[in-house]
């Protein structure tokens, strides 16, 4: 299991990208009265700015442990060409998103991977309903399983060692279960995370600022860092069955070849993330907890982050989480936490996208306070970042906020054009027409002009 339902809490409360009670349908993406859906075309991964000493440590921790913290005895991967098959009632955007991802894996990670229609594919991607996924894993949006190809196979084997990641010694056949009634972006995000796990690391590390191998879900598509990790994963110097000691012995030389600039970078050596902080963050942001329990968990996470002396993105993310939790009950204290989050995120060039999330929150405050110039400034700094990282939900949110700010500043024509620009991205990020229109209405309520007119 990779992608938990944490994205619910990563955007404005009024602008959440996924997980409404009414599922999207295939018709919602075809028979729409809104402008055509927009999709990303040319990837824009950023260069890796990490010391090879840190990369080597990260690689071993990612490749030889599970998310639970359990250590793995041996290194595993596919050997030889890898084929990927897509089956089920597939959303219209998924085949092209998969083609783009496979192309990136070939060109950026150097992995021999191709699409196929053959039933003996190495990896079978099953497009199934959210209900079917959550019947097996209630907190997951999607998941990947070894040694099966279909849901019926998994149903029969789910309580056996056959599908236990801790027991496998090689990878030959896997199944990914992808939601077919989510927004196009959520389906795409699941493709990236689950295929990356199917091919490579089984662990997530909160200490990584620029990676999908991180349960904070800030990054939704594979980054330049992730592609370098996967390139190392399939380097000829590694093979199935290697022990932790053998991998540790080989990996520094691999990164010296693949990332020569990293030999001259100063290692950061960030502290490990303690399990109590991870559990507190998951309680604070995950499904199922009461508001009181969320706040208590976020408070505990902040206490741990402070005691650890963190000055990195994890400290910022903890403040961000507290801001989200307090936003509906104590807006001013929430804003203090958002500003604190931004202060920590600003310390590294690898956390620009984190700052874009904060900017969406602060722009909303500026709108409600009749301060359009600040909202225009904040969104202007972040729109290209959201586009560069292919986050259509965040991009649409920022454009909608900017449109309201332009209206408030008396620039109605520019506001109308910006709002129109947001809709194609919103269709990809949020899904069905009703959810896109709901976002427009919810963001419009932030504008004092609309409240004064009683037009909402």
Structure, briefly:
Helix content is 51%, strand content 6%.
Describe the protein's architecture and organization.
By secondary structure, the protein is mainly alpha-helical. It has two domains: 6-16 and 28-264, Collagenase (Catalytic Domain) (3-Layer(aba) Sandwich), CATH 3.40.390.10; 275-451, Tetratricopeptide repeat domain (Serine Threonine Protein Phosphatase 5, Tetratricopeptide repeat, Alpha Horseshoe), CATH 1.25.40. Helices cover 51% and strands 6% of the residues. A five-stranded mixed β-sheet has the order 2-1-3-5-4. Strand 1, helix 3 and strand 2 form a beta-alpha-beta unit. The radius of gyration is 22 Å and the shape is globular. The two termini are 41 Å apart. Mean pLDDT is 91; it is low at 1-28.
């Amino acid at each position: 299991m990779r992608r938990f339902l944490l994205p619910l809490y990563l955007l404005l409360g009024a602008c959440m990208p996924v997980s409404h009670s009414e599922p999207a349908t295939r018709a919602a993406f075809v028979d729409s009265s809104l402008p055509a859906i927009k999709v990303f075309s040319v990837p824009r991964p950023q260069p890796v700015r990490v010391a090879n000493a840190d990369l080597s440590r990260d690689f071993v921790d990612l490749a030889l442990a599970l998310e639970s913290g359990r250590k793995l005895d041996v290194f595993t991967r596919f050997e030889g060409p890898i084929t990927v098959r897509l089956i089920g009632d597939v959303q219209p955007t998924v085949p092209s998103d998969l083609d783009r991802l496979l192309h990136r894996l070939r060109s950026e990670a150097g992995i021999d991977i191709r699409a196929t229609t053959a039933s003996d594919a190495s990896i079978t991607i099953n497009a199934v309903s959210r209900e079917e996924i959550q019947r097996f894993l209630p907190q997951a949006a999607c998941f990947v399983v070894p040694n099966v190809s279909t849901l019926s196979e998994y149903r029969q084997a789910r309580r056996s060692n056959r599908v236990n990641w801790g027991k496998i010694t090689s990878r030959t056949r896997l199944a990914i279960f992808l939601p077919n009634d989510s927004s196009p972006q959520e389906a795409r995000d699941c493709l990236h995370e689950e295929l990356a796990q199917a091919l490579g690391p089984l662990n997530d590390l909160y200490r990584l600022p620029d990676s999908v191998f991180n349960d904070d879900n800030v990054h939704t598509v594979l980054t330049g860092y992730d592609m370098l990790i996967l390139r190392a994963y399939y380097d000829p110097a590694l093979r199935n069955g290697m022990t932790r000691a053998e991998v540790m012995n080989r990996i520094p030389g691999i990164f010296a070849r693949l990332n020569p600039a990293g030999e001259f970078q100063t290692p950061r050596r960030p502290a490990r993330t303690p399990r109590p902080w991870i559990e507190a963050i998951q309680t604070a942001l995950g499904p199922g907890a009461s508001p009181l329990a969320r706040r208590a968990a976020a408070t505990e996470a902040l206490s741990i982050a402070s005691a650890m002396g963190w000055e990195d993105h994890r400290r910022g993310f903890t403040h961000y989480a507290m801001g989200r939790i307090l936003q509906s009950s104590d807006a001013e204290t929430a804003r203090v936490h958002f500003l604190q989050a931004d202060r920590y995120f600003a310390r590294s060039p690898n956390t620009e996208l984190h700052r874009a999330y904060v900017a969406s929150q602060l722009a909303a405050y500026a709108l409600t306070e009749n301060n359009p110039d600040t909202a225009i400034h904040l969104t202007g700094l972040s729109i290209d970042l959201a586009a560069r990282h292919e986050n259509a939900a965040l991009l649409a949110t920022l454009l909608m906020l900017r449109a309201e700010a332009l209206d408030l500043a008396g620039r109605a024509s520019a506001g109308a054009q910006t709002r129109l620009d947001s809709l194609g991205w919103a269709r990809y990020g949020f899904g069905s027409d009703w959810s896109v229109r709901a976002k427009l209405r919810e963001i419009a309520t932030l504008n004092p002009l609309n409240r004064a007119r009683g037009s909402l």
